[in-house]
Design brief:
Number of helices: 8
Number of domains: 2
CATH architecture of the largest domain: 3-Layer(aba) Sandwich
Number of strands: 11
CATH topology of the largest domain: Trna Endonuclease, Chain: A, domain 1
Largest sheet: 4 strands, mixed
Oligomer: single chain
Distance between the termini: 25 Å
CATH class of the largest domain: Alpha Beta
Order of helices and strands: HEEEHHHHEEHEEEEEHEH
Length: 272
């Protein structure tokens, strides 16, 4: 059982129910306006062959009266009123059900059940759910050998206390840090058919706990570099790493630098 997925689904459900509650409240408000004035009489319908016929009963002790075609608007008013009134009852019923779910604490965290245990009892329990902090610490504590090739080219120091190879990578690293997105620089990744590569960043979406790799292609104006870059991206694809899902690819040339807006776009789309 994936307890994080269970918790994440609960959070999504809470958000959906909250949105649905708001929509139902608006629907109920609209329907109350449209059913404020009840049209006079009861309506009955039947068919004569393929043609509908409508009858109206003006009062309790009054007989049913056939409505001619010219009197059809009276049937329209009653039918729409009764339809909207039934819809209003359904919406009010659903709203109460959603309010009960929300009030029962559907947003409660499973890890709170562990943290609320007495300290001595916690020592006896096998915890089934990691908090975000625990998960992030586990992600960042993974040991790996840093990429030693061209180590002398690491000339840009980040706020995280590491050195990267280009100004664009520095901007990406600073943007990740500003958004409090956990990442590792040049984490080794094995690609079947290619071997070990070192994507610029291995990032963690804390909300979904999905790992997203970020590859920045900084010399796309160089034909040989561009050819090798495209070749590497093909291996990413064949290994299940797809741009827009679990892979971010940014690029630039000397004439067309990387834009901060592009970095923020990818961060907002895949990492928050």
């Amino acid at each position: 059982m994936d307890y994080f997925q269970l918790e994440n689904n609960r959070c999504q459900l809470f958000a959906l129910l909250t949105e649905q509650k708001s929509m139902l409240e608006q629907l109920i408000s609209d329907l109350k306006v449209k059913t404020r004035n009840r049209p006079y009489g009861q309506l009955r319908s039947s068919f004569c062959g393929i043609y509908p016929q409508y009858y109206i009963k003006p009062g309790r002790d009054k007989p049913w009266q056939y409505l001619s075609k010219s009197e059809r608007p009276r049937a329209v008013k009653i039918a729409n009123y009764e339809y909207r009134k039934a819809l209003l009852r359904r919406a009010e019923h659903d709203l109460k059900a959603i309010e009960r779910l929300l009030s029962d604490g559907i947003s409660d965290k499973y890890d709170e059940n562990f943290s609320n245990l007495p300290p001595g009892r916690r020592l006896l329990v096998d915890k089934l759910y990691e908090t975000d902090e625990e998960f992030v610490n586990g992600f960042l504590s993974e040991d790996f050998d840093s990429y030693q090739s061209f180590a002398e080219s690491k000339q840009f120091d980040t706020a995280q206390g590491e050195s990267v190879r280009s100004k664009a990578e520095w901007i990406i690293a600073e943007s990740l840090a500003r958004h409090e997105i956990p990442y590792q620089y040049e984490y080794p990744l094995y690609l079947d058919g290619l071997g070990i590569v070192h994507p610029d960043f291995r990032c963690l979406n804390v909300r979904t706990r999905r790992i997203v790799f970020w590859e920045h292609l900084g010399l796309m104006g160089d034909p040989e570099y561009a050819t090798q870059a495209i070749r590497k991206l093909r291996f990413y694809e064949s290994n299940g790493l797809l741009v827009g899902e679990n892979l971010i690819v940014t690029e630039e040339t000397q004439a067309i630098p990387l834009r901060p807006e592009t970095i923020n776009h990818w961060i907002e789309r895949l990492l928050l």
